[in-house]
Design a protein that fits this description.
The chain is of the alpha/beta class. The chain contains ten helices and nine strands. The chain has a nine-stranded mixed β-sheet, sandwiched between helices.
Length: 330
């Protein structure tokens, strides 16, 4: 691996610090939820261990086959119509042929980087609806936007109305609901999973290099994610978490928060060699699978490594989410 210059590194860490916005005073109050366990005591030493020095590099664009993961080629919209503003928040893309959606439809709400997500989505998806929501660079606005107990339910209802208008069926409804987030977008996912409605209706969660927390508040801030991971591990839900090896200043990295989830499930990540099937420049270094709970850890500590994580969405959609929803519907 070759390392990048110090300037992009400093800029990246500054951006990540702003994105986290997780000082103890800013942690939102959480609702009680069935099944939440009391603290297990201090985490094992490996949980909050920083990524090793061997992961602290970044490949150049040339080393990634000439593709800049922060500006990937645009494949267009494929089987989908262009973005529309028919949802109460953000925007959505719907298949050009809506007849298969007439009675029910599946939908993923993606937070942060809606255009990058769309580029991956249209290459493997044909029938589900994608809603993209961008609310800024920090996790705080995402968490705040969904702090109200009715906000997400109203958003889902607005998408149902939009599909009803397109299909002509007023009774059409969302069947499977997924949440996807890159970087700061995890703030919305945490807030939604902390609400009764979200816990009841969300089937799948995809987190791409975005889960952070404070150290002292890990149990509190990561509680909704731990609960969902436990459901996924039991096979009742699906959850995919990926992380780079970026080390942010003063709070838990995506490596450490992923380790925390694994630890709370009684597991430990396994070392791995890079895989040729991953996006160019992403070198797999660890993994963990239990039931429907999947974690992948990658080397790399800079902006390109962070952007490259969203390239994992295509694989997760094609080989996990689409198959899960298709099989469950059969």
């Amino acid at each position: 691996m070759s390392t990048t210059s110090n300037l992009p590194r400093r800029l990246l860490l500054a951006a990540l610090a702003a994105a986290a916005a997780l000082a103890p005073s800013s942690a939102p109050a959480r609702n009680d939820a069935p099944g939440r366990l009391a603290s297990l005591g201090p985490p094992a030493a490996w949980v909050f261990k920083k990524p090793g020095h061997e992961t602290q590099g970044s490949k150049s664009v040339a080393e990634r086959g000439g593709e800049n993961p922060c500006a990937t080629p645009d494949p267009g919209f494929g089987a989908y119509a262009p973005w529309s503003r028919d949802s109460s928040m953000g925007q959505l893309i719907v298949p050009k042929h809506v007849e298969p959606l007439r009675d029910h439809f599946d939908v993923v709400f993606h937070f942060h980087g809606h255009e990058a997500a769309r580029k991956e989505w249209v290459q493997v998806m044909e029938r589900a609806v994608l809603v993209g929501i961008d609310l800024g660079n920090g996790s705080g606005p995402y968490a705040s936007a969904f702090s109200g107990p009715e906000t997400f339910a109203q958003l889902v209802a607005s998408v149902e109305r939009a599909i009803a208008r397109r299909t002509g069926n007023p009774d059409v409804h969302a069947r499977f609901i997924g949440l996807s987030a890159w970087s700061a977008g995890y703030g919305a996912v945490g807030a939604i999973l902390d609400q009764p409605y979200g816990r009841n209706v969300v089937d799948s969660v995809i987190l791409l290099d975005g889960l952070h927390s404070g150290y002292a508040q890990a149990d509190l801030q990561l509680g909704p994610f731990v609960d969902f991971a436990r459901e996924a591990a039991a096979g009742r839900r699906f959850m995919f978490v990926s992380h780079s090896s970026i080390i942010p200043p003063g709070y838990a990295s995506t490596t450490e928060t992923a380790n925390f989830l694994i630890w709370r499930l009684g597991g430990r990540p396994k070392p791995s060699l890079p895989r040729p099937t991953d996006p160019p420049g992403l070198d797999l270094v660890s993994w963990y699978v239990r039931g429907g709970f999947h974690v992948r850890g990658y080397a790399g500590n800079d902006k390109l490594d962070h952007c490259a994580q969203i390239g994992l969405l295509r694989d997760v959609l094609e080989y996990h989410l689409a198959r899960r929803w298709r099989d469950a519907a059969d």
